[in-house]
Amino acid sequence: MFKQVGLIAKSGDRRVREALRELIDYLDRRQIPSVLDAACAGVLPERHLLTRDRDALGASCDLIIVLGGDGTLLGAARSLVDHDVRLLGINLGRLGFLTDIPHDKMGECLDEVFSGRIQEEERFVLHAVLVRGGREIVHNEALNDVVVHKWKIARLVTFDTYIDGVFVNSQRADGLIVSTPTGSTAYALSGGGPILHPALNAIALVPICPHTLSNRPIVVNADSRIEIVVGGEKRTSGQLTCDGQTTADLVAGDRIRVHKRDAGVWLVHPAGHDHYATLRTKLHWGIEL
Predict the structure, then answer these.
(1) I need a surface site. Which of 4, 34, 36, 161 has the fewest CB within 10 A?
(2) 126-260 topology per CATH
(3) What is the pTM of this model?
(4) Kind and range of the H or E element at 14?
(5) 249 annotated active-site
């Protein structure tokens, strides 16, 4: 059901080389054409593989297989969000909530996928805009989270939060995480946020070490428009990050506007994928009785 497969691999990981070789051999045996992300061409230079840049990869392939951890898949998802392509993750990292196929089960899981026994799910993506002096100076996407946080110094960040133009609160904290359901098992979870089912149309706002203990995570409709206004001194040491990647340094008066994009990201799983089984395995919740 997939006519051409794109391959994206984590750079600089010694395990990737062998896993990528196994994957290409598997696709060759099944006579499935594959194209390698140009940024990964150095992983297997001896194979003389067909390569494309990321945009061309998204335009020419209907399935992208990502080898690495969740960070690798997050980067792939952000770069391919404008393309109608499915993403499937082979886990070579640690937790692997998104890259949920273990490397040692890659063959049998891919057999399921290429036989058409799959589950697809759409994950929504956030769009963040940094406005300074009335001008939009930075745009970025996030599949996991948009985070406003302090940087370098042991001093709290001051900020106001608005939802759909309505003032919610003023906070002094280490920062604020604006999380999708996908990101609810990432940084937001370590900050005490709730785990959101991936199918929910919801966003969690999770303060990071708030100075006022009554500040708690809140969950809002994902169609809400969120605005965070940075306060404090003119020069601050705050930063804006999207999916853990630094997007911009912040100064007092900056406005960070966050909303859900119309287009999301499609993930592919083998048939029988169970979100709760993933939580049990990754979070060590124990076994079924």
Answers:
(1) 4
(2) Tumour Suppressor Smad4 (2.60.200)
(3) 0.93
(4) helix 14-29
(5) no
